[in-house]
Amino acid sequence: MLTAYDHTLASLVDRAGVDIILVGDSLANVILGLESTVEVDLQTMLRHARAVRRAVSRAMVVGDMPFVAYQVNPREAVTNARRFVEEAGCEAVKVEWFDGCPDVTRDMVSAGIPVMGHVGLTPQRARELGGLRLQGKDADTALAVIQQAEALQEAGCFSVVLECVPAVVARIITSRLRVPTIGIGAGPDCDGQVLVLHDLLGLTAGRRPKFVKAYARLAEAVVAAIREFGEDVRQQKFPAAAQTYQMSSEERARLKQMVHWEE
Q1: Contact between 137 and 163 (Cβ < 8 Å)
Q2: In what order do the strands lie in the sheet with 60-64?
Q3: Any idea what the Cα angle at residue 212 is, between residues 52 and 47, rounded to 5°?
Q4: What's the confidence (pLDDT) of residue 206?
Q5: What is the pLDDT of residue 202?
Q6: Quick check: 40 and 25 in contact, CB under 8 A?
Q7: Residue 111 CB contacts under 8 Å (≥ 6 apart), including other chains
């Protein structure tokens, strides 16, 4: 599973054969430059989900439910989740653990909406968790994460994301659940893995989390290409003949007469 937020990159992810595309609320940070995923609204998520859906022909598309869509007023969760399916064309939605998450999940599943769960580090509750840091480091908190994953399975989730937990915790959860687990910073024993696409491509600035592997260094390539463009423009090398449209000599002569222009 990989994230995608726009038509162009979603089409490439789909072409590469990824099984699931998550329209993640991480677009708050990656695309909009916001400090927290809590700041992104429902309309923005739906707009990006529609763009991704239009690009994808084979992968499953999952819409990330933003904080305001189900945690502020859980009674609106089904209505908001249905918009991801009916308006944006997503096959499923994803929700992060909070105290009312099992009830919200049951309501959505009962309404015929497939739900992916998310436990461990849940960025929408990062402040409560002490920041974006490893969860389940001790036996007591690890047991809580395990129980949360089991509760989401029992509530009807078809899959559970495990984020930033020790590998042994992810291994225990994966062995106990009947549904697939998808890890991010959860070790190699999950059934699947997910990364933020921009991290994978080496497009994000600053220090990367421990669990990220950059498979390309596109930031440097993009900067180099833009610098080369700038130099070509300043030196009048761009546009060259190959990038320039021409008029036939006859029409050019007629135009010069019409506008009284001498070269």
Answers
A1: no
A2: 2-3, 20-23, 60-64, 92-94, 115-120, 159-163, 181-184, 192-193
A3: 20
A4: 80
A5: 96
A6: yes
A7: 78, 81, 82
Q: What are the catalytic residues?
A: 163
What tokens does 223 get?
């900067």
Q: Domains in the chain and their CATH numbers? A: 2-216 (3.20.20.60), 220-259 (no CATH)
Residue with tokens 């020790």: 166
Full DSSP string of 15-61 = HTT-SEEEE-TTHHHHTT--S-GGG--HHHHHHHHHHHHHH-SSSEE
Q: How far apart are the C-alpha atoms of 224 and 242, rounded to whole Å?
A: 22
- Following DSSP, what letter does each residue of 122-179 receive, concatenated? -GGGTTTTTSS-----SHHHHHHHHHHHHHHHHHT-SEEEEES--HHHHHHHHHH-SS
* CA–CA distance, 118 with 95 (Å, rounded to integer): 6
CA 113 to chain centre: 20
Q: H or E element: which one contains 221?
A: helix 218-234
Q: Which stretches of the chain score pLDDT less than 70?
A: none
pTM: 0.94
DSSP structure class, residue 195: B
